[in-house]
From TrEMBL:
Location of the Mab-21-like HhH/H2TH-like domain: 150-234
Highest taxon of source: Eukaryota
Gene name as annotated: Dvir\GJ26575
GO molecular function terms noted in the UniProt entry: ATP binding; GTP binding; metal ion binding; nucleotidyltransferase activity
A UniProt-annotated Pfam family: Mab-21
InterPro entries: Mab-21-like_nuc_Trfase, Mab-21_HhH/H2TH-like, MAB21L/cGLR
Zinc-finger is among the record's keywords: no
Record's protein name: Uncharacterized protein
Record's keyword terms, sorted: ATP-binding, GTP-binding, Magnesium, Manganese, Metal-binding, Nucleotide-binding, Nucleotidyltransferase, Transferase
Cofactor(s) listed in the protein's UniProt record: Mn(2+); Mg(2+)
Length: 235
């Protein structure tokens, strides 16, 4: 945050913003995850209190309930005949020049100028936590975009997962990661010219290979950092 604070410090019109941000950082200007999240929780709670925890749309009143879990802030909307949740995850947008990835992976940021840092709460809770995790959602979206049958493949694999109790822990991001590796390994024409059933068979075969690689839970390397195994977190 040093660069941001230096810029704001020299802008009299942003004095209030500068003073407020200084409360969220350490003595070395590192943004503290817990203070950032507490600030957001306070702002959301005050807003909902002013709204009396309800909203009216088209003559229908819905009750609003707020909760936070991990990095996410969730508002449950309860109508008489409908219930749904809206998730909000704060992200710090950073210039791609600040990214820490191998040269091989940087090719996917050719037309993407930024990436994001997501708050990472620690367990057990620790004060003055400065942990954030990298998110490359925009680059992942660009990789998946215009891959013809790929979107159908994602839907089929998720439906298959939801129908089987023994693979319920296969998170959506695990499925995305598996496909990111396949996008990287296969020509773009593959997703257009191959039949959907052939692609599905290939992808399930790749998933099976990940599950039986080694150890109790197999292995699925994170696409952006292959030294990290996503399946290692399974319990």
């Amino acid at each position: 945050m040093t660069e941001v604070l230096n810029i704001l410090h020299n802008q009299p019109q942003n004095k209030i913003t500068f003073t407020f941000l200084k409360k969220l950082v350490t003595s070395t200007n590192l943004l503290q995850e817990n203070k950032l999240q507490d600030m957001i929780k306070g702002a959301v709670t005050r807003a909902l209190n002013k709204m009396e925890n309800k909203i009216e749309v088209d003559g229908k009143t819905a009750q609003l309930m707020y909760k936070s879990c991990g990095p996410a802030h969730t508002i449950d909307v309860n109508e008489a005949d409908m219930k749904y949740s809206v998730d909000f995850v704060p992200a710090i947008k950073l210039n791609v020049k600040q990214i820490v990835l191998s040269q091989e992976k940087l090719k996917y940021f050719k037309n993407i100028p930024y990436w994001s840092a997501i708050p990472k709460p620690l367990k057990p809770f620790e004060p003055n936590n400065v942990s954030f995790r990298a998110s490359y959602y925009e680059a992942e979206y660009a990789m998946i975009k215009d891959k013809y049958k790929l979107k159908h493949v994602i839907k089929f694999i998720k439906k298959f997962r939801d129908s089987k109790q023994n693979i319920s822990t296969l998170k959506s991001y695990y499925i995305k990661t598996l496909l990111l590796w396949q996008i990287d390994a296969r020509p773009t024409t593959y997703w257009k010219t191959q039949q959907l059933n052939k692609i599905l068979i290939d992808m399930f075969r790749e998933l099976a290979n990940c599950l039986v690689t080694s150890g109790k839970y197999g292995k699925l390397p994170l696409f952006w950092d292959p030294d990290l195994d996503l399946f290692a977190a399974l319990t």
